[in-house]
Amino acid sequence: MTDAFSSHARRLAKLIQEARRIVVFTGAGISTESGIPDFRSPGGVWTKFAPIPFDEFMASEEARRESWRRRFVTLDPMTSAEPNRGHRAVAHLVRQGRVSAVITQNIDGLHQASGVPDERVIELHGNATYAHCLDCAERFEIDAIKRDFLERDVLPVCDACGGIVKSATISFGQAMPAGPMARAEKETRACDLFLTMGSSLVVYPAAGFPVLAKKLGASLVILNREPTELDAWADLVIHDEIGPTLGAAAGVN
Ligand code: NAD
Ligand code: ZN
Known about the structure:
Layout: H1 3-18, E1 22-26, H2 45-48, H3 54-59, H4 61-73, H5 77-80, H6 85-95, E2 99-104, H7 110-113, E3 121-123, E4 126-133, E5 139-141, H8 142-152, E6 165-169, H9 178-190, E7 193-197, H10 208-215, E8 219-223, E9 236-238, H11 242-250
Parallel strand pairs: 1-2, 1-7, 2-3, 7-8, 8-9
Antiparallel strand pairs: 4-5, 4-6
The structure holds nicotinamide-adenine-dinucleotide and zinc ion.
Nicotinamide-adenine-dinucleotide is lined by residues 27-29, 31-33, 36, 38-41, 44-45, 105-108, 125, 198-200, 203, 224-226, 241-242.
């Protein structure tokens, strides 16, 4: 452990101790240590594929086919990933009553898998571990869809209403989920420390929450390997790995 690193962790630990109510905000970077690639790092998902916007998914069977193909090839490692030290440190702070909510852009379900209760996780971009009907919201399990798609080349259709079935994630061009957005705003308004980790903070409206927290007087901490769009706004910026840094600050291995 270098001196610079331990002084970061110490400063972070002090802010965490002094806070009354913390909101944790996470992006793809918290899950890279679990082996799930993020979007923008070298080798990340977007260096290989351009995203499929929602209107294309709806308009074209070929786009839906390509979307499911990617789900089962690129995103499949997600379903077998395990939470890492960063997730465990967050779960520890939630258990201690320090963190009121975990707002996440991630779709991998790893905060819940690390022991954060469902009601404390706010998913802004949905969840890739299941699918749902876009018309009636009926839930479908990925395994059955995967079998039909890979073995019989069949695209999923809702057996309740005939609607299009899509992974329960939010695509570019798709409306943000109203309930989670409202809860995230409420939590952001109530916190006095907003801790963002592993997000490049370029995807809006999600990146609006750290801005809102700061405007309302909360302390803003940014823990990210690389500089982010909002570094200049933050009270503490740490350019380092999440697991070791937050793990040390929270006393979790
Ligand atoms: P992003 O890829 O834009 O940014 C991730 C950031 O995390 C990068 O700046 C990178 O430098 C940093 N990072 C990566 N590993 C790190 C580590 N171990 N320690 C510290 N920093 C690290 O991701 P984003 O801001 O979340 O936005 C992209 C969108 O991608 C999100 O909306 C999300 O829905 C989606 N996504 C989710 C997953 C997932 O669920 N695990 C994976 C890929 C993409
Ligand atoms: Zn339906």
